[in-house]
Amino acid sequence: MRPPVAHHHPARGASRRPFRLLIVEDEKRLAVSLAKGLTAEGYAVDVVHDGLEGLHRAGEGGYDLVVLDIMLPGLNGYRVCAALRAAGHDVPILMLTAKDGEYDEAEGLDTGADDYLTKPFSYVVLVARVKALLRRRGVEASPVHVHGDLRVDTAARRVFLGEDEITLTAKEFAVLEQLVVRAGQVVSKAEILEHVWDFAYDGDPNIVEVYVSALRRKLRAGLIRTVRGAGYRLETGR
What we know:
Blueprint: E1 20-24, H1 28-40, E2 44-48, H2 51-59, E3 65-69, H3 77-86, E4 93-97, H4 102-110, E5 115-118, H5 123-135, E6 144-147, E7 150-153, E8 158-161, E9 164-166, H6 170-180, E10 186-187, H7 189-197, H8 207-218, E11 224-227, E12 231-234
Parallel strand pairs: 1-2, 1-3, 3-4, 4-5
Antiparallel strand pairs: 6-7, 7-8, 8-9, 10-12, 11-12
Helix pairs in contact: 2-3, 6-8
């Protein structure tokens, strides 16, 4: 159902930061589904489930777009949007709501939202709206991430180290993907579990270490650094 992804390859050795998206949605199944789909499109996606946490995370900056539900616990989407705009944050905001009516759309846009989507909506339409809002920011996200001699194509789900293609299992690729879209930053074990194994996972959290070890064997030992007590970081240098 997803639209075709344009394959743009940055110059060898270059590393374009992927767009970072924040989803603020209290319907956990929908939020997880959107996060997985948008991650597969090449975006770095974080998810929170209440308005107060959404306001806090979005207010920290660093996001290129916020997908914001209106009916949220703690603080509704209108108030989150208004508070962000009052604080001077100009991040594009795509509002979601189960309501339908001109008043609701007007209220959302009046508080500073950039676009508005009524549930139920097509995933394809949501992706098109996201891309349109990001285009206003200048450039589109590339699904290909290049870091030294490592190249990861999140759309084709292929990994190359130098001239060699590296075969990864689905879970290995998903773990690497979380690291590569935030290369140079520390990604916690909890964040990897949340994105790769989903919110309902209640098994051994050390499973992340198993997959990181497998990636180090298949790629290069020094490529993924353990930051004690914090998580893992994909090194961007060769």
